[in-house]
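I am hoping you can look over what I have pasted underneath with an eye to the fold:
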Amino acid sequence: MKIQFYKYQGTGNDFVMVDNRDGCFNYNNTEFISSICDRKYGIGCDGLILIEDDIDLDFTMRYFNSDGSQLGMCGNGARCVTQFAKKLGIINNSAIFQAIDGIHHAEIIDNNYARVKMNDIDMSNYDLISKNFDNIYLNTGSPHLVINSNDIDKIDVFNEGRKIRFGDKYKKEGVNINFVEVTSDNSFCKVRTYERGVEDETLSCGTGAIAVAVVLNYSNIINKKEIKISTKGGDLNVSFDRVGDNFSNIWLSGVVSEVYKGEINGDIKR
């Protein structure tokens, strides 16, 4: 049976979207999901997102990494699925939806710009050495390691990231690695990310951008309530309120767009 899909991207983070409100998509078939995401033999994407009915909210977002796993939240995917929900007529310009890490609010600013509200972060929950901006671990819906870097364009993100991700410390649960270079005037930063589940560098990472922004502010490197994160796929903006160790009202904003739609031979529940 044919499955209709849509391809979306948010600052280069690309996703296959499927309307699964009828519940027919067999999301337990991880091999099928990873074949969809395969860039040589499938459609090709960083992840698959199903939009599903929710009794109390506008919809449920079910996110899969390109290896077929359901690990963590995807910030850019959340922005894209909000645009997709509008296309399907589920919402107008705002949404409240369920994801793996809880309930999120989202807004469409215009036809190619969307933002999503992420969970609060309490930095007192993490073991930080003198708030030093280097090798800081935190969870922003997905686990991230933030690494202070120089000359970021020359870093071998695939091999360096893979070494950390599959090292003894993080091998079991996995971690996303964010290499960060702050501009000389401390006005914004450049970020490159190795993503678990994709097991490669991605052009952008939403939860990674949030991790970086929070760490930079907490470490008193960039003392702004809105921080620009420059990725290989484009610019993201992270805004927040901070009281002591607590970060709240965290919003991830950036461009999104529909790339194309099509059909693929599918695995349907019977």
